[in-house]
Amino acid sequence: MDQKKEQKPHCLILPYPSQGHINPMIQFSKRLAHKGITITFAVPQGVLTSSAAGNIAVETISDGYDSAATRAGVGPQERLLSFKTAGTESTSRLIEKLREGGRPVDCVVCDAFMPWGLAVAKSKGLFGAAFFTQTSSVNVIYYNVFKGLLKVPVLEKEIVLPGLPPLAVSDLPSFVVEPEKLPGLLELMVGQFEGVEDSHFVFVNSVYELEEEMRCSSFGISYHV
Questions:
Q1: b/e sequence 130-165, b meaning 16+ C-beta within 10 Å
Q2: pLDDT of residue 140 exceeding 80
Q3: Active site residues per annotation
Q4: Secondary structure class of 116 (helix, strand, coil)
């Protein structure tokens, strides 16, 4: 029995620290835990209480800020840069801590907003997986911007993208149509795809039956919903 427990796979989950990203990854984590996988959920200080995560173990990593108050008013680009630096270092320490405590990590699943998580996994010789909290349809749009196939700001009246029906400008995310009104956010959205093609797995918060065609065309790689 003890030997079987030691052999259970262990996933370290790294969500982007905002509620709309944390909730889908908690639900995903609970499904993995139900299948017998050990889960460690890692978030910055003050972002999530242990009770909110149910029976999932919660650990703390650093995003470069000591509290929610110090994070307030910080722009998305600045926050991401801080999180990349502090998060890379503190996540590496956490992986070592878990290993030394007899709970070695096998796979790092990180929010696609934080591609540095994949780099940490690779540096430790672990499996790395990207988790997209947005639907495949939205991912198709941002991926085409990332690849330079969809120019921003969009000026065409009709936009045709793989796996999607013809779209009008009004169908597109505001970040793509008027990026100047929300500075930094478009870069955040398209930056999700940095290094994703090198990940071992890609997970998307979607419904297979609703987005089967988009599933096959989003990134040019196979992924799971």
A1: bbbbbbbbbbbbbbbbbeeebeeebeeeebebebbe
A2: yes
A3: 21, 111
A4: helix
